[in-house]
Fold this sequence. Notes:
Blueprint: H1 2-20, H2 28-48, H3 55-79
Helix pairs in contact: 1-2, 1-3, 2-3
Amino acid sequence: MGFILWLIVGGIAGWLAGLVMKGGGYGIIVDIILGILGGWLGGWLLGIFHIAFAGTFGALITAFIGAVVLVFITRLIKRA
Length: 80
């Protein structure tokens, strides 16, 4: 059950990041991948600053922050 929840949280975080970063997302599969990778990146970045969110909603916030960073980076690379 944890893996499915991880995919759902990653998908929501990636989709929200695509919306927040102006313009549509990259499609559901890439949004899920960005959300999952964003969860890892967000956890790492927030860990550096000793910030932690608990629970599923906290995981969503963490994944969202990381996904926004990843979407920003991918759009910079895409422009170049």
